[in-house]
TrEMBL record:
This is Glucose-methanol-choline oxidoreductase N-terminal domain-containing protein. Residues 310-324 form the Glucose-methanol-choline oxidoreductase N-terminal domain. Belongs to the GMC oxidoreductase family. Keywords: FAD, Flavoprotein. InterPro entries: FAD/NAD-bd_sf, GMC_OxRdtase, GMC_OxRdtase_N, GMC_OxRtase_C. Pfam families: GMC_oxred_C, GMC_oxred_N. It comes from the Eukaryota. PROSITE patterns: GMC_OXRED_2 (PS00624). Gene3D superfamilies: FAD/NAD(P)-binding domain, Glucose Oxidase, domain 3. FAD binds at V135, V273. Its cofactor is FAD. It comes from Timema shepardi (Walking stick).
Length: 598
């Protein structure tokens, strides 16, 4: 779907009434939100800069990692920072929570359009959509807005692996630093903060099924609690990166407040960095090459280059720059500056659909008249169905029999709003799909460039299900999805298991293990929690790319600060942890350049 940046100026409401419901909705939501958009005078600051312009720091990628690093470095008034983003400005329609389903289409103007290599044992054998935000804010502009930090043990394990300073008690302050939590009871605890750049709160609207899910899951044994607090096992009406019914991307939260106020910050959009410039003799990064407006340009870094492109783009850029596996670079004619396992250890939280609840009494499907009413309510008050994501705002965590530590969750559940008629805003649905997610997969894949061409997408092989363990977790999760229906609340509301076989699996008995294995093979997909491809680890770890200060091994003045540095992806959504990594990374840069930390 190509999402228009604004509705036709000559389209009236009466004209729109004659088109399809989806077209009407998209046109109206764009029209209203665009015409209510907050004026951002900083948009004019994205003009060109002279070739070979010098800055103290160059930050590549304006997602959660890059934007936060740029924000924190420009707190030092005599440091200059250039922030480069391959995508454009964040469109105003991105703020509508229920609209996120459209933001995540791979044909969207704000998506990179990545697909994994096709393999027969996952994603139906056709390759997986690897949606990544190509826009200011990166994937924080396109994601489902969950604010989930992972499990305490994840970070303690990172530290035990030789990454000093990354234990939970070490990094908790960086979660708190970013946060402006809207729940006054939570901010009284040591786990949450107020006054930070990132607004965190629940959506203002919960429909009947959202309330029922919370109650029903509690009835079958899951405790309702703050998953980001002392314990991580249970169910939660998720905290979101949102405020007053609007998405708060990293762009809106961390960049917009400073972009036109700090003269030491320069932001370039639609500027694809094609190479980090590294002196081959001294192995020192001294700038970048980038492409903008049809021209290749350079920018010089006096102090450091920080790569924050994410789990796909960061390893791609390093490899193009001569930092990566010798066996990948030499056949392509790229001089090897440093032989490191860049692109390896790539992994993700694989998940699968397959368990669907038909809503016999509580369908949230709405006709055009009701949709217009909801649209008006959202436009006037930022409330109502469009201010939330339906049942997708519920998140749950469990521990299966395969995990020896009883409180260390190895499976996550999210819930998708689905409609038999196709893709619609999250508010409107007549089915609930249970999505089990493998939290600590054992399978590992890789990212490899295919050529010297920086515009060619890299080869992406997540290598899902190369380990049987990951399949076993999903098998257990799909069965849990059926077991949830034992809830008294679900039964009273008429939730019914849809027992129609999934296409391609009808030869197997429904809900048998062969049936579920077939479903997993055909309907598994990414949960967009990509990481690990520029692994952080001690020098003794042959797979490590960066040290515990996020410095690339044996290359001076080059760091990676994003989800790619995770030794293993944490047990939950990756947005909040990436913000934490960026906050900590920025402090380490300041420390290394003798700036007193506050």
């Amino acid at each position: 779907m190509n999402i228009p940046s604004s509705p036709p100026s000559n389209t009236s409401l009466s004209d729109a009434m004659g088109t399809s419901p989806l077209t009407v909705f998209l046109s109206l939501i764009n029209y209203i939100v665009d015409h209510q958009a907050h004026t951002d005078p900083s948009s004019s600051l994205t003009d060109n800069i002279p070739d070979a312009q010098e800055y103290d720091f160059i930050v590549v990628g304006a997602g959660a990692g890059g934007i936060i690093v740029a924000n924190r470095l420009t707190e030092v008034s005599n440091w200059s920072v250039l922030l480069l983003e391959a995508g454009g400005e964040e469109p105003s329609y991105a703020e509508v929570p229920s609209y996120c389903v459209f933001m995540q289409q791979t044909s969207s103007e704000v998506d990179w359009g990545y697909w994994s290599e096709a393999r027969p044992n996952f994603c139906g054998g056709n390759g997986c959509s690897m949606q990544r935000g190509k826009v200011l804010g990166g994937s924080t502009t396109t994601n489902s807005m969950f604010y989930v930090r992972g499990h305490h043990r994840d970070y303690d394990e990172w530290a035990r692996m030789g990454n000093e300073g990354w234990g939970y008690e070490d990094i908790l302050k960086y979660f708190v630093k970013s946060e402006d939590n809207g729940n006054p009871n939570l901010v009284k605890t040591k786990y949450h903060g107020s006054g930070g750049y990132q607004s965190v709160e629940v959506f203002p609207y919960q429909d009947i099924n959202t309330v029922a899910l919370l109650k029903g899951l509690e009835e079958i044994g899951l405790t309702t609690r703050d998953i980001n607090g002392e314990h991580q096992k249970g169910v939660m009406l998720s905290q979101m990166t949102a405020k007053n019914g609007e998405r708060r991307s990293a762009n809106i939260a961390f960049l917009k407040p400073i972009r036109d106020k700090r003269s030491n910050l320069k932001v370039l959009t639609n500027a694809l960095v094609t190479k980090v410039l590294i002196d081959a003799y001294t192995k020192t990064a001294n700038g970048v090459q980038y492409h903008k407006n049809g021209k290749f340009m350079t920018a010089i870094a006096r102090k450091e280059v920080i790569v924050s492109g994410g789990a796909i783009n960061s390893p791609q850029l390093l490899q193009l720059s001569g930092v990566g596996p010798r066996e990948v670079l030499e056949p392509l004619g790229i001089p090897v500056i440093q032989d490191l396992k860049v692109g390896y250890n790539f992994h993700d939280h694989i998940c699968s659909s397959g368990v669907n609840y038909t809503l016999t009494k509580t369908s949230q499907w709405a006709g055009l008249d009701a949709q217009y009413e909801h649209l008006t309510e959202y436009a006037l008050n930022r409330t109502g169905p469009l201010s939330a994501t339906g049942v997708a705002q519920v998140v749950a965590f469990k521990t299966t029999e395969y995990e020896n530590i009883t409180d260390y969750n190895d499976i996550q559940f999210t819930f998708e709003n689905t409609h038999v008629g196709g893709v619609h805003p999250n508010s409107y649905y007549d089915q609930i799909t249970v999505i089990p997610i493998v939290l600590r997969p054992k399978s590992r894949g890789y990212i490899k460039i295919k050529s010297k061409d920086p515009f060619e997408h890299p080869l992406i092989n997540p290598n899902y299900f190369s380990e049987e363990y990951d399949i076993k977790i999903l098998l257990k999760g799909l069965q849990y999805g059926i077991d949830f229906l034992k809830s008294k609340t679900f039964q009273e509301l008429g939730y019914r298991l849809n027992t129609s076989p999934m296409h391609g699996c009808s030869k197997h008995e429904f809900a048998s293990e062969p049936y579920w294995r077939c479903v997993i093979k055909k309907y598994s997909r990414t949960n967009y929690h990509l990481g690990g491809s520029c692994k952080m680890g001690p020098a003794s770890d042959q797979d490590a790319v960066v040290d515990s200060s996020l410095r690339v091994y044996n290359v001076t003045n080059l760091r990676v600060i994003d989800a790619s540095i995770m030794p293993f992806v944490i047990s939950g959504n990756t947005n909040a942890p990436t913000m934490m990594i960026a906050e900590k990374g920025a402090d380490m840069i300041k420390r290394d350049w003798n700036i007193k930390l506050t």
